[in-house]
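User: I would dearly like some help making sense of a protein record. This is the protein in question:
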Amino acid sequence: MTFVVTEACINCKHTDCVEVCPVDAFTEGPNFLAINPDLCIDCAVCVPECPVNAIYADSEVPAGMEKYAQLNAELSRQWPPIVRRADPLPQADHWAAVKDKLPLLKGA
């Protein structure tokens, strides 16, 4: 089992989760974070740190978001690691509540 970043992260990109990851499994794209499943050790410390509840165990990803497991795997191989907290994207609070954001994902 690994953890997966899902839709709520798109256009928000809060990075509270990256600082607590003991293995630096997070990668950063233009408007989304991904978790490298090859590095994730399933510790779950990132889950409570996400203010928009975007991170799930791969076995608990909400219905309709299963594709995010594969997206995390693919994107984490393309994007650079992120290990330090940074400011969220502008208007992150607005985007946190928006649904069906997959078409807005940049760099996929």
Q: What stands out?
A: The first strand starts at residue 3 and ends at 5. The mean pLDDT is 96.
